Amino acid sequence: MEEEVEKMRKEKRIVVAVDESEESMYALSWCLTNLVSDANKTKSTLILLYVKPPPPLYNSLDAAGYLFANDAVGAMEKYGWDLVNSVMARAEAVYKDFSSIMSVEKKVGTGDAKDVICGAVEKLGADILVMGSHEYGFFKRALLGSVSDHCAKHVKCPVVVVKRPRD
Amino acid sequence: MEEEVEKMRKEKRIVVAVDESEESMYALSWCLTNLVSDANKTKSTLILLYVKPPPPLYNSLDAAGYLFANDAVGAMEKYGWDLVNSVMARAEAVYKDFSSIMSVEKKVGTGDAKDVICGAVEKLGADILVMGSHEYGFFKRALLGSVSDHCAKHVKCPVVVVKRPRD
Fold first, then answer.
1. Which residues from chain A sit within 8 angstroms of residue B38, using beta carbons?
2. Would the CB atoms of B39 and A35 count as touching at under 8 Å?
3. What range(s) does the UspA domain occupy (chains A, B) (predicted)?
4. Which residue of A13, A40, A159, B100 has the fewest CB atoms within a 10 Å radius of its CB?
């Protein structure tokens, strides 16, 4: 136990999954206030992880012959990256006051959010995963499953699920 | 967002669900290292929550006429409280180095762990709930459900699910 505590003190790699939602920005600010602390003996690295949905199957749709001309594909690609940049810019505004006391990395993955996040946490050697929680109703949750549920179950490191308080 | 961050800094009531498991003691030590920090501007209150299982239905079993004599009931009650005390004593050993920088409260509930924990978090005005995670196999999880899953879904405050790394 002692050694484990010692190891935890040394360095902390915190992965925060960010997306377009208010919930994820709240989770990020919770993380900064509660897990990144200026006077801790721990050096923190904040890793922002954004997951782009997988591209649609252009080829099969292309067979229809008119919808996915190269221009449209290019436009969708560009739209995807604009979204990434806007989310990262919002995140920057949230963490800017903490930049001097931690390092920041930004990662973008593509695919099913559940799988990408679980894979990234392992690959990046994360010590903590922080996620916002969308409060879907019963049916949407039953249909979609919940990304945070899945990750809390499958990821090996501690997982923080942050709900945004209702104003 | 700014106000929310401000509010989070002021005081932090952290509920840690403890039981007989190594996992819950690891979760407690993770919590102390990562959430209770001496130099934070935040004053922390650590609330240890132990849930005793509900008593068996003595009356219906008593009808059998021999098993649950009053002595046996008393012995089981005593065994239950011995368990509570031993868990709290183990917890004390884990948090003793942090006692000077936080206040500690101990709570014991009785009933189904899921419901008791969710109810207590609300009633105690918790800002964070910390729980260990038992890595059951698929069948046990499917049968029993997971207390941490349930709480992460139903509790309003941020929930930390801590897995104990395999040595």
1. 39
2. no
3. 12-163
4. B100
Contacts of B135 in chain A (CB under 8 A): none
Give yes or no for residue A9 having a pLDDT over 70. no
**CATH code of residue A18:** 3.40.50.620
DSSP bridge pairs for B14? B46, B128
**Can you give the residue range of the structural domain that contains B42?**
20-163
Query: Residue B8 is nearest to which of A9, A30, A40, comparing CB atoms?
Result: A30
Interchain contact, A12 vs B29, CB within 8 Å: no
Q: Which residue from A4, A12, A160 is facing B160, i.e. has the nearest CB?
A: A160
Interface confidence (ipTM) of the complex? 0.80
Residue B15 inside a domain? The answer is no
Predicted local distance difference test score (pLDDT) of residue A106: 96
Whether A128 maps to a domain, the answer reads: yes
In chain B, which residues have pLDDT < 70?
Answer: 1-10, 38-41, 56-70, 72, 135-145, 166-167
Which residues from chain A sit within 8 angstroms of residue B26, using beta carbons? 1, 4
User: How many domains, in total, are found in chain A?
Assistant: 1
Please name every residue paired with A11 in a beta bridge, in sequence order, or none if there are none: A43
One-letter amino acid of B4: E
Q: DSSP 3-state assignment of B4?
A: helix
* CA atoms of A53 and B132, how far apart (whole Å): 32
Query: Would you say A91 and A28 are in contact if contact means Cβ atoms under 8 Å apart?
Result: yes
